[in-house]
Structures are given as structure tokens and as C-alpha cells.
Amino acid sequence: MCLLEQVTLAPLTKRSEVFVTALHQQEIGTKWIRSDQESVYEIRLRTQCVGFIMISTIKPEANLVNVAVEKPLQNLGVGHQAMTLLVRKLKRSKITQLHLEVRQQSPAVRFYRRHGFYETGIRKAYYADGENALLMTKDL
Ligand SMILES: CC(C)(COP(=O)(O)OP(=O)(O)OC[C@H]1O[C@@H](n2cnc3c(N)ncnc32)[C@H](O)[C@@H]1OP(=O)(O)O)[C@@H](O)C(=O)NCCC(=O)NCCS
Q1: Among 9, 39, 102, 139, fewest CB within 10 Å belongs to which?
Q2: Residue of 43, 49, 20 whose CA lies nearest to 33
Q3: Which residues contact ligand 1 via a Cβ below 6 A?
Q4: Looking at the whole model, is its pTM more than 0.85?
Q5: What pLDDT score was predicted for residue 23?
Q6: Which atom in ligand 1 lies closest to the alpha carbon of residue 75?
């Protein structure tokens, strides 16, 4: 079985919380503060948690709050597969649009474009260091 067939999404389990908290700090650069408004999915490779996707939903739209894959597994298609699974899940829940905001200079912008996200706006100097945020949307 190829690597990507072994990627699944599942609601965050108690035993993965410490890992997700550390990964959020490392890859997003901020402390993860759990919110009731967000659904957190762990990205699993076989039985192992290797990343996360956080979304908030106000039907029929959803917001992709954050996504990360652990460093050694980045650029192998795991994120792509996880996004594909998420989109499938959201469509089943009758979500019609997925929005996000991302640092304008982030390599993740390309990742999102390849997933069919298009730019809908820009927030000037949105981040504390002065970088702009791009607003992006994908129609599901
Ligand atoms: C963005 C991310 C989730 C993609 O997952 P992945 O498994 O690496 O993605 P894939 O292998 O399917 O695709 C690779 C794409 O992700 C992007 N990417 C790779 N490493 C990245 C990194 N460290 N940070 C951001 N994007 C990255 C690349 O642009 C690449 O796109 P390309 O092939 O067009 O160059 C993952 O790289 C990551 O966790 N990055 C750090 C956290 C982050 O930037 N999250 C998004 C901020 S909201």
C-alpha cells in the first residue's frame, strides 16, 4: 500500500493532544488555545498522528483555521491527501465554501492554490510583524 493510501483524518484523540500542541507551536509559531468553536482533526499515517487540521464551521461555510504536518513528512503529499479527505467530509456535511487566511509570503499559498483556493482579498499588515494576510476561498 502506498504512503498516501495510509493517510486518514480522525477527530483529535486525548493521546494526540500533547503532540498537536507541540506541532502547533513549532509549525504555526503560536500557542494553541483550544476553542469550542473549532473542530480539530488529527492527520494520521496508519495509526500515528502526524499532523492536524483545525476548522470552524458556520453552515454552509467553513473556515480553515490551521493545518500542519510534522517536518519530516512535509512535501510528500500527506497535506494534499489530508485536504482531499477534509473536502470530501465537508461536502458530505453540505458545506459549500471553505475560507482561510494565510501569510502572503508563506509557501503554503502555493499549496492552497493547487487545492483550488482563489484569492478574495488582502488584509494589510495583518500579522504582528507587518506581513499581509491573503484571504482565500475554495468552492466545494
Ligand atoms: C502546508 C503543509 C500543511 C502542507 O503539507 P505537506 O504534506 O507538506 O504538503 P504536500 O506534500 O501535499 O504539498 C507540498 C506543498 O506544500 C508547501 N510546503 C511545503 N513545505 C512547507 C512548509 N514548511 N510550510 C508551508 N508550506 C509548505 C509547498 O509549497 C508544496 O507546494 P508545491 O509542491 O507547490 O511547492 C505543511 O507543509 C506544513 O505543515 N507547513 C508548515 C505549517 C504551515 O505553513 N501551515 C499553513 C499555515 S496556515
Answers
A1: 139
A2: 20
A3: 27, 66-69, 74-80, 102, 106-108, 110-111, 114
A4: yes
A5: 98
A6: 11
